[in-house]
Amino acid sequence: MSAMPPSELLSLPPGFGLVAMSDAEFRDYQQFIERLTGIHLAPIKKAMLAGRLAKRLRDCQLDSYGAYFRRIAEGGDAQERQIAIDLITTNETYFFREPKHFDALRSRLLPTRNGQPVRIWSAACASGEECYSLAMVLADVLGEQAAWEVLGSDISSRVLASAQRGLYPMERGHHIPPELLKRFCLRGTGDYMGTLLVESGLRKRVRFKPINLIEPLPEIGLFDAIFLRNVIIYFDAETKRRVVNAVSQRLKPGGWLVVGHSESLIGQPANLLPILPTIYCKQ
């Protein structure tokens, strides 16, 4: 789950009559989302929230945010609740974001594995670009036939379905190193002009699973590295502590926990020691 970009209110057709979101309605959504996902929406996110939900209200033929909230609240429409969560929590990302992390993986971590199987978890993978970036590095350094695996997880089932396809707008791939772009991606033609497709061999090495980080984690094994980037910034201190504790328990000794460059693990588990900026090693 990457940093939320600013968002403008969606334009609505004349006469639709959508009533603006009130402060009280925003607080209802704010508490609801924090309870379900651990994500705290600051007051400045009110316009973003209203914008993301506006088209859905129109699709549901509702004219107020309060009416939609009543529909998705506990005891209401569970399917619609998931749609709302997907709309609110899904964010834009791109391949090889914060490239120094991938450089460190290539030069520092992978050479120490000496032919052992390698597992990496992208714990808030959004639409999957991070997962396939990791897979490209693993395939390049270890070989496409070596024993390695990438797991991508997110709270949004909708973006995971999109991630599974591996089809992206070409602009998302501007930071893919040219040699990896040529080797692992196909350029769209015809109806798919302007897109890139991650090649099938690489897609088969990445699996996706819906996971809510603030709930007990499922049995997913241990990992050599966990990328927990651009998500804990949205948690309050207690939720952040619980999530980092739970996630770090899934690291092998000597494994890396990687967070975003705008994030910090100050005050977090003592067995996570910083070795590079925003990279921590489990002792």
TrEMBL record:
S-adenosyl-L-methionine binds at N91, T93, R97, E130, D154, N212, L213, R229, N230. One of its GO terms (biological process) is methylation. Pfam families: CheR, CheR_N. Keywords: Methyltransferase, S-adenosyl-L-methionine, Transferase. One of its GO terms (molecular function) is protein-glutamate O-methyltransferase activity. It is an enzyme of class 2 (transferase). It catalyses: L-glutamyl-[protein] + S-adenosyl-L-methionine = [protein]-L-glutamate 5-O-methyl ester + S-adenosyl-L-homocysteine. Residues 19-267 form the CheR-type methyltransferase domain. This is Chemotaxis protein methyltransferase. The lineage of its organism: Bacteria, Pseudomonadati, Pseudomonadota, Betaproteobacteria, Neisseriales.
